[in-house]
TrEMBL record:
GO molecular function, one term: peptidase activity
Membrane topology category: Single-pass membrane protein
Keyword set includes Protease: yes
Domain Band stretches: 18-175
BP GO terms, sorted: proteolysis
InterPro entries, per the entry: Band-7_stomatin-like (IPR043202), Band_7 (IPR001107), Band_7/SPFH_dom_sf (IPR036013), Stomatin_HflK_fam (IPR001972)
Subcellular location(s) of the protein: Membrane
Family label: Belongs to the band 7/mec-2 family.
Entry protein name: Regulator of protease activity HflC (Stomatin/prohibitin superfamily)
CDD domains the record matches: SPFH_eoslipins_u1 (cd08826)
One GO location term (cellular component): side of membrane
């Protein structure tokens, strides 16, 4: 007699235990009633009727996904290997379950194709120097495509742009040539500025002969302090005076 009551009681307790579901704060349950979408439940405690209702759990936390290394041909026909990291999360559990099969795999495939297509429209220099802009472009495209799946793409970061050895050497030669060009331009600008200053100094000295004489004496003092050999430059005015004296003496002799 007791067994006849005990068996249904045990079955009832097992049914209740199988019906109880508890979801944490960061998860939601998409519930189907006889195959049709019913509601999104959670977090907390709720009841699911076994055999009639079915639930699929979706994690709402940010998912970090490594985008596998992709072979990309840039716009200037350079082959590089690029990989990236993708951050996304589910914002609509209903769409993530109903609108796409295996939303994580679908997002991964979308990120790979978008990475190749976006980087293929840019030159190698842009890939190396404008990563922030490329990250934003890739993030916007993936986010717009995955919005219908109930997925929000938070960020995309390009991690590595790998080049072969020949391209690395070519870039090094290009950088060296660029540095030499800048050095020559800076040297030429310095010569131009120096020549302008010399012209200004010549105008100032020509207006005041005493200043030229003082500069001459200062130069003599600097030369005498640095070397035991003194080179005495002959002023042009003094040579003109001797030449004039010599010309006057020869005129007297002729007379």
């Amino acid at each position: 007699m007791m067994i006849s009551y005990l068996v249904p009681l045990v079955l009832l307790l097992m049914l209740i235990a199988a019906s109880i579901r508890i979801l944490p704060e960061y998860k939601r349950g998409v519930v189907f009633f006889l195959g049709r979408f019913q509601a999104v439940k959670g977090p907390g405690l709720f009841i699911i009727i076994p055999g009639i209702q079915k639930m699929q759990v979706v994690d709402l936390r940010v998912i970090t996904m490594d985008v596998p290394e992709q072979d990309v041909i840039s716009q200037d026909n350079v082959t590089v290997k690029v990989n990236a990291v993708l951050y996304f999360r589910v914002v609509d559990p209903e769409k993530a379950i109903i609108q796409v099969e295996h939303f994580v795999n679908a997002t991964s495939q979308l990120a790979q194709t978008t990475l190749r297509s976006v980087l293929g429209k840019h030159d190698l220099d842009e890939m190396l120097s404008e990563r922030d802009k490329l990250n934003d472009d890739i993030q916007e495209i993936i986010d717009a495509s995955a919005e219908g799946w109930g997925i929000k793409v938070a960020n995309v970061e390009i991690k590595h742009v790998d080049l072969d050895e020949s391209m690395i050497r070519a870039i090094a030669r290009q950088a060296e040539a660029e540095r030499e060009r800048r050095a020559k331009v800076i040297h030429a600008e310095g010569e131009l500025q120096a020549s302008k200053k010399l012209v200004e100094a010549a105008h100032i000295l020509s207006e005041n002969p005493a200043a030229l004489q003082l500069r001459y004496l200062q130069t003599m003092a600097d030369m005498g302090s640095k070397s035991s050999t003194v080179v005495f430059p002959m002023p042009m005015d003094l040579l003109k005076a001797f030449k004039a004296m010599g010309g006057s003496g020869s005129d007297k002799d002729e007379r």
